[in-house]
Amino acid sequence: MEEITPVLFATVNTDANLRDGPGLDATIVDFAPAGTQLTIVDRSDDEEWLQLENGFWILAALADILPAEGE
Asked: Coil, strand, or helix at residue 7?
């Protein structure tokens, strides 16, 4: 049976750069202003970076993960 990856949602808590990989040395590829809703599909191994559904990455400290429905 195929493993299902849970999807999380988050809101950017301050203006943030989006990068092409996890880490401050990764290239900035886009920008998300405070209040932007994000769909999170993965985390870096150290859990400091969140991967978005478009493949970009954001520093986890710059996003507030929303509680899953029913929590």
From this structure: coil
Residue 70 falls inside a structural domain = no
Q: What is the CATH number of the domain that holds 61?
A: 2.30.30.40
Integer Cα distance of 62 and 36 in angstroms: 11
Strand partners for 11 = 37, 64
Which one, of 48, 71, 69, lies nearest residue 60 by Cα? 48
d(C-alpha 50, C-alpha 56), whole Å:
8
Q: What is the pTM of this model?
A: 0.85
The pLDDT score that the predictor gives to residue 6 is 65
Average pLDDT over residues 30-48: 96
